[in-house]
Design brief:
Elements: H1 3-14, E1 19-24, H2 28-38, H3 41-44, E2 46-52, H4 55-65, E3 69-72, H5 80-87, H6 89-92, E4 100-105, H7 110-119, E5 123-126, H8 131-142, E6 147-148, H9 152-161, H10 170-173, H11 177-187, H12 192-199, H13 203-217, H14 222-231
Parallel strand pairs: 1-2, 1-3, 3-4, 4-5, 5-6
Helix pairs in contact: 1-8, 4-5, 7-9, 11-13, 11-14, 12-13
Length: 235
């Protein structure tokens, strides 16, 4: 553990800070890395009380543990981070001991940032964040602050403050959350079988979603779909 993180932990301990955290990410190795980096409670003040790899697991673990903060990946099997937020809305809105969410994702796409903030997340940081800054972000979110990686806050300000332009792509709004997930994976070059495995659905269901996406966006094939998604920075 870095000297900076040890210093951050000493400060947290000195202030008596303690945060119970759930890690939600579909990559086990990443969860293990975050746990190792920030989960030494005696040093950082952060206690990892649960982990989850998909939407259903996340909702179950969050309801069972009632953490102060959830570190939430945006792209998850079963409906994505937005679906976790939707299903945990009562916990976020609790008068006493609300559960607060901080998105932690590799994506810095405006659509992803805006989507989870609309869903109720208190902030959004990318996976390039240091352990020291992540610990600090956890405590800030626990206290009710909004936390963003540099430049991402601008997406939110543009989306929610601008009266000149709509905050959401109207074409994208026609798609369901699952259709958006399939769209991203298709645009990234995944085969139907790979998408089915990633999202825990059948190949036939993937085909149905692709057909629906093409119809709603008035596109002819996956190549046009890839260009469409790339132009909107969804890939």
């Amino acid at each position: 553990m870095s000297e900076d993180l040890q210093a951050e932990g000493a400060a947290a301990a000195g202030e008596g800070r303690h945060a119970r955290v759930v890690l939600v990410d579909d990559h086990r190795m990443f969860r293990t890395g975050v746990q190792a980096e920030i989960g030494r409670t005696d040093v950082t003040g952060v206690e990892v009380v649960g982990e989850a790899a998909d939407v259903d697991q996340a909702v179950s673990v969050i309801n069972a543990t009632r953490p102060e903060v959830v570190l939430l990946d945006v792209h998850l099997p079963g409906g994505g981070g937005v679906e976790v937020l939707r299903r945990c809305a009562p916990l976020m809105g609790a008068v006493e001991n609300p559960v607060r969410f901080l998105a932690l994702s590799v994506s810095d796409a405006a659509e992803d940032v805006i989507g989870v903030i609309r869903g109720g997340a208190r902030g959004y940081v990318t996976k390039t964040i240091t352990g020291t800054d992540l610990v600090d972000s956890v405590f800030r979110v626990q206290e009710g602050d909004a936390v963003f990686s540099p430049r991402l806050a601008g997406f939110v300000l543009d989306a929610f403050a601008s009266t000149d332009a709509p905050p959401v792509d109207e074409d994208l709004d026609r798609l369901t959350q699952r259709e958006r997930e399939v769209l991203r994976l298709i645009a990234r070059g995944y085969a139907y079988k790979e998408i089915a495995k990633q999202l825990f659905i059948s190949v036939k269901t993937v085909e149905s979603h692709v057909s629906a996406v093409l119809r709603k966006l008035q596109l002819s094939n996956r190549h046009e779909l890839t260009r469409w998604a790339t132009a909107r920075r969804l890939v």
